[in-house]
Design brief:
- The chain has helices spanning 21-31, 36-41, 46-62, 66-81, 87-95, 100-103, 107-115, 118-124; strands at residues 2-7, 13-19, 84-85.
- It is mainly α and 128 residues long.
- It has a 3-stranded mixed beta sheet.
- Mean pLDDT is 84; it is low at 1-8.
- It has one domain (18-124).
Length: 128
């Protein structure tokens, strides 16, 4: 989705691609195809999608799949770093995603947290 961002110094308008709910669903499915059904079922409901992705992260950590868990956090970091993510995604990560205390409850989770992108660590660090 293209949205008008701001008027530039020379008076022209800057247009950027914003990551809205539909685009987020597409991106998430491309990175986490095993979650396609739940992501499509909750298309546009970024908090529910983020919660489902958080559950997948928790499962990967429980199975000591550190690299696979990090891929999820790197996905979110890439989405947040591209274009202009919708504020709803930032809000969903801060409210509906796993928080740092939950993540750091196990050795594998602590490793994932320590190796996570800084932007994601700061967003989920509500209680640590």
């Amino acid at each position: 989705m293209l949205t008008m961002d701001k008027i530039l110094a020379d008076g022209r308008t800057a247009w950027i691609e914003q990551v809205d709910g539909a685009l987020f669903t597409e991106l998430a499915i491309s990175h986490l195809p095993e979650l396609a059904a739940v992501l499509r079922e909750n298309d546009g409901l970024v908090h529910l999608q983020t919660l489902a992705i958080g559950d997948a992260l928790t499962q990967r950590i429980a199975c000591n799949q550190v690299e696979e868990a990090l891929e999820i956090l790197q996905f979110f970091d890439a989405v947040l770093g591209s274009g202009k993510p919708a504020l709803a995604l930032e809000n969903a990560l801060q409210i509906s995603f796993i928080d740092a205390a939950e993540l750091c409850a196990t050795a594998a989770g602590r490793e994932v947290f320590e190796r996570a992108p800084e932007r994601i660590r700061s967003m989920i660090s509500r209680t640590v």
